[in-house]
Each structure stands twice: as structure tokens, then as C-alpha cells.
Amino acid sequence: MMGCKLLPVLTLWTMSTEAFRKGAQMKKCHLSKYKSLPPWELQTFKNVKDRFEDIMLLSDRKCNTKIFHRNWDVKELSVHDRVILVKEELHLVIDVLENIGEPSLSELLRRPLEILRHIREDLKSCTRHQPDNHQRSRRLTSWLQKFHTAKKMETPGCLEASVVLNLFRLLNEDLKCAAYMESCT
Predict the structure, then answer these.
(1) Residues contacting 36, CB < 8 A, separation 6+
(2) Structure letter (DSSP) for residue 67
(3) Which of 54, 66, 131, 144 is deepest in the core (most CB within 10 A)?
(4) Residue-wise pLDDT tens digits, 48-98
């Protein structure tokens, strides 16, 4: 009889402690859903890239931008640095995509931007819960300085090209590696 009364109490206690976590348990970063984006979501990004490439073929835009270029792999960074890297890249990507003036692209960008904004919020949550004593690696710090300098020097058209042409690398390499945490190899 005592067991019958204890079971509901234990169940309620377990549910309340899981729903309202405190302290260290709350500092988890949940990016695992980005280990592999659904094919239909990736298709929306491919549609944007294909349309953009069609537009570029018709323009006289000449870009040799290397804003996203790195001589190292994301997996070489710490887990925390990976999240920071992707968050910084994503900030630029969203900013540029929100400001693309081409009407045919603007329509295609609705769903991809929705996805990217959701990812950005998850990344922000992860960076808010990083350890207070986390020091960015020299590699990341140096790359971020070059990244911020390069984005200021690029023309809007070349920034658009760089962002759109690097979307799949961002999603399929950088974000995926951040999502795999310690298991990224």
C-alpha cells in the first residue's frame, strides 16, 4: 500500500526536476538535432544556391572573395570554439540573406532564413552557457579578426556570393561538427 502512494510522489518529483532544471544541468547545449538536416530542408538551400548561380551567370560580378577561407578544419577547435565560430558565421549569413534585393531570391529565402534564425537562437543559448573561464583559441581569435575585417572590405555583391556559395559548407561541415560536440572527427 505504501508503494502505491510513493510511486505518484516519485513520478511528480522526477517530472518537476526534469522540467525545471537548475545549476549545472541547465548549462547543456542541445545541438544534436543539427547533426543531419532533413533532405527537404537542405533542398530549400539548394534552390536558393541554384537560383543565385543563375543570376550570377547573367551578371558581370567578379569576386575572388575568401571571407570564409580557413587553413584548418573546424574539428581542430574545442567544442566551445566551434559553437562560437558557427554563431559568428551564421550572424553574417543571416544579415546578408535578409538584405538580398533580388525579388526572386527573396521569396526563395523565406524558409532558409527561418531555419537559420532558429539555429542562431540555439547557438546563442549554447554560448550563453559556456564556462566563464573559457578562453578562445589563438586560431579562432585570429580567424575571427580576419573574418570581421574581410566582411567590411567586401562589396555587397561579393558578400552575397560568398555567403550563398558557402551555405552548404556552413550547414554540412561547420554546424554538423559543432552538433557532434566531442565526437566530431
Answers:
(1) 176
(2) T
(3) 144
(4) 999 998 888 877 777 877 888 899 999 999 988 999 999 999 999 999 999
Give ∠ CA 130-128-166 in degrees, rounded to 5: 90
Alpha carbon of 68 to those of 21, 56, 64: distances in Å? 38, 19, 12
The per-residue pLDDT for range 125-180, each reduced to its tens digit, is 888 766 667 788 999 999 999 999 988 888 888 899 899 989 999 999 999 999 99
Beta strands in 31-125 (DSSP E): none
Q: What is the pLDDT of residue 181?
A: 86
The tally of CA atoms less than 13 A away on the side-chain side of residue 167 is 26
CB atoms within 10 A of CB 70: 15
Q: Which residues of 112-124 are buried (b: 16+ CB within 10 A; e: fewer)?
A: bbebbeebbebbe
Q: Kindly report the number of other CB atoms within 10 A of residue 71's CB atom.
A: 6
Identity of residue 11 = T
Position 3 confidence tier, pLDDT thresholds 50, 70, 90: low
Report how far residue 34's alpha carbon sits from residue 39's, in angstroms, rounded to the nearest whole number: 12
Q: Given 3-state DSSP classes, what are the helix, strand and coil percentages for the chain, each rounded to the nearest 5?
A: 75, 0, 25
Does the structure show a pLDDT above 60 at 10?
no
